[in-house]
Amino acid sequence: MKDKRKHLKGKEGHPEKDFSSNGEVYKSYSDRIDDGIITLDVLSSVIKKAIGDNNLGDEGAQEMAYHVLNFFGYNDRILDNILEPADRDSFYMLEDKGILVTEREETTLYDGREWRIHYWIFRKEVIKELLALDVKDREQAEYTDASKVYESISPDVWNPQSMKEEQ
Description:
By secondary structure, the chain is α+β, with helices and mostly antiparallel strands. The chain has one domain (8-150). It has helices spanning 29-34, 40-51, 53-72, 85-96, 124-132, 135-151, 160-166, and strands at 8-9, 15-17, 77-79, 100-108, 114-122. It has a 3-stranded antiparallel β-sheet, with helices on one face. Strands 1-2 form a two-stranded antiparallel ribbon. The longest helix has 20 residues, at 53-72. The protein is flat.
């Protein structure tokens, strides 16, 4: 019987086959997200797509993914207060790309003071979308969504004469 934890390496070191905790074969990286797993390969691929090949490259994306996963481990969220300022800068960059999000929880202490706890959370739905999209497709989708605003505006708004007539 074969060891189910063994990875069969494909092109560029990515696994062709990988197994979930119940022994089923993953068909794609997005299947891993459904199983709640964010691996180094998944996160480095997403970072590379979100930030862009030219800015980071394969090695830089893998280093950043490794750095981030060292904080998260097998969890989906971490406490903000464990981060150093340099680490937090990387997290803010990933937040700008939609990969991470912050959350705040407030509680009242026994002496009546308010206490705030800040968390960083993986946005698995965005990670899954980024796995499916190329960076160019994502930029085009963002541009298309923004351009829909102008489609909903009446042509009269752009005519200075119509603005004077309304006054």
